[in-house]
Amino acid sequence: MLKNRLARLNLRKNLKYYLAGLLIVACAVTAVLVFTLGGEETAPVSGISAVSNETLKPQRVPVYLYFGNEDLTGLATEVRYIPIEEAAKSTASLATAIVNQLLLGPSDSDLKAVIPEDSALLDTVEIDGDKAIVNLNDAFVENHPGGKTLEALTIYSIVNSLTELKDIQSVVFKINGELREEYAGHFKFDNPFPRSVSLVLDGGA
Fold first, then answer.
1. Distance between CA atoms of 68 and 140, rounded to whole angstroms?
2. pTM of the entire predicted model
3. What's the angle, vertex CA 163, arms to CA 162 and CA 165, rounded to 5?
4. Are 153 and 114 in contact (CB under 8 A)?
5. pLDDT-based confidence at residue 85 (cuts at 50, 70, 90)
6. Please, what is the Cα angle at 22 between 17 and 28, to 5 degrees?
7. More confident call, 123 vs 7
8. For 15-29, 65-79, 81-95, 132-146, which range has the lowest pLDDT when averaged over its residues?
9. Cα 194 to Cα 177: distance, rounded to the nearest angstrom
C-alpha cells in the first residue's frame, strides 16, 4: 500500500517536471516564431522611415541678403538658407531665389525692408555674361518714397545681394521689360550697377 502511494507521488512529481518542460519548450518556440514572423510585420517598409527626422531635412546653402539697418542709414546682412536643389540648378535660379527672398523682407526685427511695397519680379533673373538682369514691375518705381539715401539702399540691397555670387559682377534693372533712364529722381538707372560696399555697415565685402 505504502509502495503504491510512493509510486503515485513519484509519478505526479515526474508529471509536473514533464509539464514544466513542455511549457518552457512552448514559450521558446513562441518567442522564435514572434521574432522570425512577427518581426517582418513590424519592420519599416522603407529604410527611410527608420531614419531620424534630422537626416531627412533637405540640405541648404547660405545666401547673404542686404536690408536696411534700423535707422535706414546703411545696409546690413542677413543670412538665409536656400534648398540646395534650387541653388544647384543654375546661377539664374539661385539669383531668382535671392531676389524673391529680398522681396519677402527681413526676418531680423532690427533690419528694415527697403524694396517698395508690392514690388514683384516679373521673370527669372537673366544672366548675361557676368551681369544679372532683374525685371521688376511698376511698383518698384512708383511706390518708392524717394530720397537719395533710400534710393541707394533699395538699389544696392539687390545689387550687393546678387553680387555675393561669384558669377555676377553687376546688375541691370528693367521695369516691365524696359530699361528706364532714372530711378526715382537721383540715380541714372539704365546702366549696370557694380557692387558697392560704401553703404554696408556690418563689415560686408
1. 16
2. 0.71
3. 85
4. yes
5. confident
6. 125
7. 123
8. 15-29
9. 20
